[in-house]
Specification:
Blueprint (H helix, E strand, L loop, with lengths): L6 E2 H4 L13 H9 L23 E3 L2 H10 L10 H21 L6 E6 L5 E6 L5 E10 L7 H13 L10 H17 L6 E10 L4 E9 L6 E7 L7 H4 L12 H13 L3 E8 L9 E9 L3 E10 L3 E13 L4 E10 L2 E9 L7 E14 L2 E16 L2 E16 L5 E17 L8 E11 L9 E14 L3 E14 L29 E3 L2 E3 L3 E12 L4 E13 L8 E12 L2 E10 L5 E10 L1
Parallel strand pairs: 2-4, 5-7, 8-10
Antiparallel strand pairs: 1-6, 3-4, 6-7, 9-10, 11-12, 11-28, 12-13, 13-14, 14-15, 15-16, 16-17, 17-18, 18-19, 19-20, 20-21, 21-24, 22-23, 24-25, 25-26, 26-27, 27-28
């Protein structure tokens, strides 16, 4: 290269910096200021301003650079009244503004200080031509540079992902971001100690051209060593080791460490978890995996209350023990008292293993009085659960005994032993206040007269909810669900495996579970059900919004007996600190009545 052709940024700026970086150390200062450090504003020329309100110096610059100068160049505190003050100010302005403009690719600015008719000095900034990138070289050292097909392919992929191309304007922030992304990509797999060995931006200010050079030293391939646990007092180390998605000797993968950390953070036993590997080249063949944990209290009691137009006012008590029997089992219990429903439930869950699988054993008793149907249910269940990514599956066997007493109908006691399976896929941007994404659920289960069941049946159920963002705030919500129970008769089948509709999260404009099969004066579950929702939410602020909706659905003893009941209306939405609140007023088309639907829950 012609030694007279290029001048590095380190040579161009006033202060001496190491030639390896090729970038002024002004950049870290710029980043610091960009994160929130305010300085005195630079002002545009406004002749109409009164002289006593004018700043000591006015800056005149192209619009695209005004914010940069306003943010990072500090105007003098006092008026520039004499030649010495003007010379001092101009010396500082040329140095600082030249460095600022160089970060945006302007290397030949011209600065002049003139006066307006009211004698206010005006600093005119002409940035000159913007430098363009003419050449990019990305080189590699270390194990990644070994001539092998898989390494060559990875190098090609890294170079293809480099965002700065020949012909692009040069900007220091983009240059730094590109280098950070490159080293992050290299160190993601195998090379935990990868570093940028050299980076250089060679600038020819006369021709406004920049040549970029980056040399990455990947270092050696890292392999996992033993897991070193800190902060574990009450629990067996197996609790942590069994969740690791890798074993000693496996090659390093950053995503595995992050997944491991997430699993630990999701455990009720820990308040926080941090997983890391020290990038020590000397230990690359067996790098220790350090896990730092903070344990939570093993036992907890909480109380809650709320109201729902479905089941009325409620109060509840929760007790949890995350170290049940001293074996890190999770014990949970709930006593909930509602106007239309009272329930007591207990469950013991094992810890998830490396594959995200765990078992749960539960029992409960539940009493309801809804639409003149009284039920008392006793249930015991054993489930095998698994969570992989966004998909949760459950396969279980449960026995239940149900006493049903419809007003004016047949009083029965039914029992069944059910093999039940459920799959749920959840992909939403926010679990509490979703705006984009979907939830899909499929469930199938049944029992047989040949095995502790009063009736043979097979129940199927499908639900799909979808949130679609509209503009910056609004959301379109769609919901569809359908269910069918294959059986000779609905008699002998517990209500959990039949279907009713109506109320919140079903068909608004109708009372909770009021759409079903008429039996005496009561409404009981049928063997078929469909329902759906179209809802549009318009958010006036971040917390408050309004909605309009239409629901339709019905439940019956067969598909041809379904006659969709339509409800429509509007409501208020509130993103409350304790969760989403919805207050809806809906009209049921069948009877023309207006009904209020409301739900809120509070923990205390």
């Amino acid at each position: 290269m012609n030694p007279h052709f290029a001048m590095s940024l380190a040579e161009y700026f006033t202060y001496p910096y190491p030639a390896r970086t090729g970038i002024s150390v002004l950049l870290p200062a710029l980043i610091f200021f960009a994160l929130g450090s305010g300085v005195a504003e630079a002002h545009e020329v406004q002749p109409s301003e009164a002289k006593n309100n004018s700043p000591p110096v006015i800056i005149s610059a192209p619009e695209s650079l005004r914010n940069l100068l306003k943010t990072h160049f500090q105007l003098p505190a006092e008026p520039v009244v004499d030649d010495i003050a003007r010379a001092t100010f101009m010396r500082r302005a040329r140095q600082e503004i030249s460095e600022l403009l160089a970060t945006e690719g302007y290397f030949t600015p011209a600065l002049t200080l003139q006066s307006t008719p009211d004698e206010t000095p005006v600093l005119e900034v002409a940035p000159g031509p913007r430098a363009l990138i003419t050449e990019v070289r990305i080189e590699f050292k270390g194990d990644l540079a070994v001539d092998a097909p898989e390494r060559r392919a990875r190098i090609e992929s890294l170079r293809a992902a480099w965002p700065l191309r020949a012909g692009d304007p040069f900007r220091s922030p983009a240059w730094e971001e590109a280098k950070a992304a490159l080293i992050s990509s290299v160190s993601r797999d195998d090379y935990a100690a990868a570093v940028i060995d050299e980076s250089k931006a060679e600038v020819d200010p006369v021709s406004a051209r920049v040549r970029l050079l980056v040399i990455v030293d990947s270092g050696p391939v890292f392999h996992y060593g033993n897991i070193v646990i800190k902060g574990l007092n009450r629990y067996d180390p197996k609790l942590v080791n069994n969740l690791a998605p890798f074993k000693a000797g496996d090659p390093y993968r950053r995503d595995q460490l992050q997944a491991f950390q997430t699993k630990l953070q999701n455990l009720a036993q820990f308040g926080s978890a941090l997983v890391s590997v020290e990038p020590d080249v000397a230990a690359h063949q067996a790098a220790p995996v350090e896990v730092t944990l903070s344990e939570t209290q093993s036992q907890r009691i909480s109380f809650g209350g709320g109201y729902s137009s479905n089941t009325g006012a409620r109060g509840e008590i929760n007790y949890g023990n995350h170290n049940f029997l001293g074996r890190a089992l999770r014990f949970s219990s709930l006593l909930r008292l509602e106007q239309k429903r009272q329930s007591l439930a207990m469950a013991v869950d094992s810890l998830p293993n490396r594959a995200g699988r765990w078992f749960s054993l539960g029992a409960g008793i539940d009493r309801t009085t809804i639409e003149d149907l009284d039920t008392l249910r006793e249930k015991v269940a054993l489930n095998r659960n698994q969570l992989v990514g966004k998909t949760e599956t459950r396969i279980g066997i449960n026995w239940q005994r149900e006493d049903r007493d419809p007003k004016g109908g047949l009083h029965q006691t039914n029992q069944t032993l059910v093999l039940d399976g459920q799959l749920r896929y959840r992909s939403v941007d926010d679990a509490l206040f979703p705006r984009d994404g979907s939830v899909i659920e499929f469930r199938i289960g049944g029992g047989s007269k040949q095995l502790l069941s009063d009736q043979s049946f097979l129940r199927t159920y499908y639900r799909h909810q979808y949130w679609y963002p509209v503009g910056k705030r609004d959301v379109l919500f769609l919901r569809g669900e359908a269910g069918y129970t294959f059986a000779d008769s609905r008699f002998g089948i517990p209500q959990e495996y039949l279907f009713r509709a109506g109320g919140i999260q079903s068909v608004r404009g109708y009372d909770f579970q009021s759409l079903g099969v008429q039996e005496g004066q009561a409404i009981v579950g049928g063997t078929a059900m469909v329902s759906g929702t179209i809802e549009y939410n318009h958010w006036l602020t971040r917390e408050w919004g309004a909605a309009v909706f239409t629901d339709a659905g019905d439940a019956a003893d067969s598909l041809h007996r379904l006659h969709l009941a339509v409800g429509y209306g509007g409501g208020i939405r509130w993103r409350s600190p304790v969760g989403p609140l919805a207050l809806d007023l809906a009209r049921g088309q069948r009877d023309g009545k207006l009904r209020l639907h409301f739900s809120i829950a509070v923990a205390f």
